[in-house]
RNA sequence: GCCGAUGUAGCUCAGCUGGCCAGAGCAGCUGAUUUGUAAUCAGCUGGUCGGGGGUUCGAAUCCCUCCAUCGGCUCCA
């Protein structure tokens, strides 16, 4: 007999060789129907794999991340089986689960799969799923595995096998399909009840553009039809919130082929929104002791040679601008930090001067590859809410913590309540990607880890995600429909101060090197606004909304009264417009609702005679009639409460 | 940059098995209406069908090429 400990702490006895599925059955039939896999002593196993020693087990269902990935991993095998039936001779690459579903990279030998083929693949998958075929796990000697795929002619699997050690190789077989796979898998294909192929794309074998391009099929599956329906509804919702669509509808920004791809044009309403955000942060920064600075849009090549950016990115930048007579080369500014280093150097610094905090809403230009551009989230010209703090080593942690406070203040004001902090460290296996000494890297990484701990942030650590000059702390926010976005970033840098030979005089009258902190709470205004639009579905917080009220006269007879109301509201810094069009009130309301203006003021004969306004709130409806002053105070206090 | 898809009026889209002057709704303009909480009515304007080349008696429709957009890959200071 063996002792099985469950998550609630209870211990049950079972015969050796019992499976997680049997354990589930002993608890309840319903649970057994939903168990996809099990975590055995922390390792995810097949639910059908015999357990032969005492163990702590967690039964996994579709509600667990590991349960989902097991389901989707098994679904990838099912899709491969369907494809092998429908497209004989297909060679298979890899087929992993991903955040939402799974994909399989396949080589169709010149055949093309398009969206029209999805239906028949889905149908075949469902047909195979209904057979309820068991996923059999088999441990295989390496030579047999190689022989199997040689016979099948699958060079990708042979390539994968090369990297695996003998004695460590497992095959999984379901129905007529056998795949090289570490597992684990769901018990049988019958668990898969709903299937949807999402899209098809090209992907290089092993992600290397020198290799052959394979066809990547993305799909998702569920154990219930309803889950699939819900998922598709969520995708629809995401489409409705797409900032590119809303940006056009709300007249916030535009792109023009003539101006150039990836170069956003801010329309008046978008510019107003952007300006509000800038003022908001500017105010908070000045309170926190930041000093605004301004630097030009281009910089001499030597500046970027010193910073190391030229070596790292020079080849992939926009071509340099050359002066006609001197032949000097200038680059469009790709980041602000080198300029700020030179500002630091413009006067000698004492330890008493530190920290100094230079802030700039600096517009930068980067040559992003054509295929990379995407709405406002990936552009070629954008404005960073950048600042560089130069401090003594003993001040790093305090400064870093203060920056964290500022970032969280910004998130709160903009209704981002769900976030985690990602600590991005150097890839210890590939140090050549980075500049600077091991000692400096260690100091910087420690500073971030300690600050995050002190601020009690929920963190995840990612190796290899650091910037080339230093580690960083990135804030990943979850939006209103659960999608994750990377926004603010804070980076500790011991390297640029060295490259620029930045100094301060210490109390010992010796020269010392300051530490630099790069930070941007928004990241870039463009990206931030894109995320904000999608987060609030275009319904901006009142204080940010390009128009806060629109005044809707019942007929043209009341346009003058409407204009008078607007003038009064302007005294309270309330932004608004009068809809003077010759339209019926229903039409005006509809159009204003669609423009997502927070408040509508309906004015007609009654209001004019009583000196009032009828207030209608966007998305909610009629709130009744108010004195003009009363309304102005109401929304003024609403704005104050939202911003604090 | 690479793979795949798409590109018709300011916007959303129909037409695309080649064949009468390329259509609709919204927006815009003009006029009527002067309106009470999500679309008043009528008329009009507007497109060298992404650009260029080709096949054909004839191309929005078929082919080639370039450009842009979308979904991915690689990249992201």
Overall description:
The model has no long low-confidence stretch (mean pLDDT 92). With 644 residues, this protein is α+β, with helices and mostly antiparallel strands. It is built from 20 helices and 35 strands. It is globular. 37% of the residues are buried. The chain folds into 4 domains: 60 residues, Beta-grasp domain (Ubiquitin-like (UB roll)), CATH 3.10.20.30; 167 residues, 2-Layer Sandwich (Threonyl-tRNA Synthetase, Chain A, domain 2); 243 residues, BirA Bifunctional Protein, domain 2, CATH 3.30.930; 95 residues, Rossmann fold, CATH 3.40.50.800. The strands form 9 sheets. It has an 8-stranded mixed beta sheet, with helices on both faces. A 5-stranded mixed beta sheet has the order 2-1-7-4-5. The structure holds one RNA strand of 77 nucleotides.
- Assign a percent range to the helix content: 25-40%
Principal-axes geometry comes out as globular
What structural class should be given to the helix and strand makeup? Answer: alpha+beta
Indicate the CATH architecture of the largest domain.
Answer: 2-Layer Sandwich
Sheet with the most strands?
8 strands, mixed
Strand content: 25-35%
Radius of gyration: 30 Å
The N- and C-terminal alpha carbons lie at a distance of 61 Å
Q: CATH topology of the largest domain, what is it called?
A: BirA Bifunctional Protein, domain 2
Q: Output the CATH class name of the largest domain.
A: Alpha Beta
What's the tally of helices?
Answer: 20
């Amino acid at each position: 007999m063996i002792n099985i400990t469950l998550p609630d702490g209870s211990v049950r006895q079972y015969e050796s060789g019992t499976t997680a599925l049997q354990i589930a059955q002993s608890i309840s039939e319903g649970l057994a129907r939903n168990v996809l896999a099990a975590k055995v002593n922390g390792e995810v196993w097949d639910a059908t794999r015999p357990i032969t020693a005492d163990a702590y087990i967690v039964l996994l269902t579709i509600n667990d991340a590991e349960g989902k990935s097991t389901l989707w991993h098994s679904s990838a095998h099912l899709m491969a089986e369907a494809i092998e039936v429908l497209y004989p001779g297909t060679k298979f690459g890899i087929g992993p689960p991903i955040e939402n579903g799974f994909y399989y990279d396949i080589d169709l030998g010149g055949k093309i799969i398009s969206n029209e083929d999805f239906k028949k693949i889905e149908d075949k998958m469902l047909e195979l799923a209904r057979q309820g075929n068991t996923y059999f796990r088999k441990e295989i000697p390496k030579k047999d595995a190689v022989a199997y795929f040689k016979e099948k002619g699958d060079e990708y699997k042979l390539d994968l096998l090369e990297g695996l050690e003998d004695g460590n190789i497992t095959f999984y077989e379901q129905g007529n399909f056998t795949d090289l796979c570490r597992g684990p898998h769901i018990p049988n294909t019958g668990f898969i009840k709903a299937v949807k192929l999402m899209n098809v794309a090209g992907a290089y074998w092993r992600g290397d553009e020198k290799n052959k391009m394979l066809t990547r099929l993305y799909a998702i599956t569920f154990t219930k039809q309803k889950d699939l329906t819900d998922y598709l509804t969520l995708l629809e919702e995401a489409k409705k919130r797409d900032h590119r669509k809303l940006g056009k509808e709300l007249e916030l920004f535009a792109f023009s082929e003539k101006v150039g791809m990836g170069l956003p044009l801010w329309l008046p309403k978008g510019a107003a929104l952007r300006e509000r955000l800038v003022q908001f942060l500017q105010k908070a920064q000045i309170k926190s002791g930041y000093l605004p600075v301004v630097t030009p849009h281009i910089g001499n090549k030597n500046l970027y040679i010193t910073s190391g950016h030229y070596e790292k990115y020079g080849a992939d930048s926009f071509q340099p601008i050359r002066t006609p007579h001197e032949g000097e080369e200038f680059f469009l500014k790709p980041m602000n930090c080198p300029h700020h280093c030179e500002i630091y150097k413009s006067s000698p610094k004492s330890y008493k001067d530190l920290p100094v905090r230079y802030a700039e809403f600096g517009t930068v230009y980067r040559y992003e590859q054509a295929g990379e551009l995407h709405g406002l989230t990936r552009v070629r010209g954008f404005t960073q809410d950048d600042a560089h703090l130069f401090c003594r080593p003993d001040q790093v942690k305090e400064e870093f913590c203060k920056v964290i406070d500022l970032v969280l203040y910004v998130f709160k004001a903009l209704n981002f309540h769900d976030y985690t902090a990602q600590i991005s460290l150097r890839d210890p296996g590939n140090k050549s990607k980075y500049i600077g000494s091991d000692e400096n890297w260690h100091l910087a990484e420690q500073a971030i880890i300690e600050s995050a701990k002190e601020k009690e942030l929920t963190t995840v650590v990612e190796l290899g995600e650091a910037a080339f000059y230093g580690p960083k702390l990135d804030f990943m926010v979850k939006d209103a429909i659960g999608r994750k976005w990377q926004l603010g970033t804070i980076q500790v840098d011991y390297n640029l101060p060295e490259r620029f030979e930045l100094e301060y005089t210490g109390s010992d009258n010796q020269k010392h090197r300051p530490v630099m902190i790069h930070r941007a709470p928004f990241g870039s205004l463009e990206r931030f606004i894109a995320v904000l639009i999608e987060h609030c579905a275009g319904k901006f917080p009142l204080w940010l909304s390009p128009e806060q009220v629109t005044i809707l006269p019942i007929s043209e007879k009341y346009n003058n009264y409407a204009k008078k109301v607007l003038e009064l509201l302007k005294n309270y810094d309330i932004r608004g417009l009068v809809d003077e069009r010759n339209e019926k009130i229903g039409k005006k309301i509809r159009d204003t609702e669609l423009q997502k203006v927070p408040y509508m003021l309906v004015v007609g004969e009654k209001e004019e005679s009583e000196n009032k306004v009828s207030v209608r709130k966007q998305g909610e409806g009629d709130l009744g009639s108010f004195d003009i002053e009363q309304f102005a105070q109401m929304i003024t206090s609403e704005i104050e409460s939202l911003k604090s």
